[in-house]
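Revision sheet: structure tokens.
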Amino acid sequence: MFHPVVRRLILLLAAPATLVAAAAPAHATVPAPPTVTPAVLMSQVVTMTNQQRAAHGCRRLLTVDQGLTVASVRQSVYMARTGRHDHVWSDGTTFARRSHLAGYEQPSGENIAWGYRTATEVIQAWMASPGHRANMLNCGARSIGTGVAYAANGTLYYTQVFGWE
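Predicted:
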């Protein structure tokens, strides 16, 4: 279902939780494993985004792009590891730079969120926010990548990056 590179990235998302559990002292509380995998949530976000676009007059559905997916996963993992909910990394890296580094040349926008338990909740939140909604309903966008990561405490971090190509 997913491109092999995307599958590897998704597997890497599970690794930090395993390492945290192995390194934790016996008395430490380790969060329970996620009930919904990042891959499932990522797929749901794409589907729901395309449903919103169709309902609001966009004739073309977004296609999933590997480079944008890599950039999105990196953003979500960064936020989950650092607890920073920000479009710009502490080193100044932007969504455009992350997209370029992942091989995508024409990114058009990025939505990020944290703390929502389901894809439905995050889509509703983005649709209620004018800037996020504009990114999602920009009918000129052609591609999408999504990323979801669980922080060590179980908090979900979501990213979607859109592109012109």
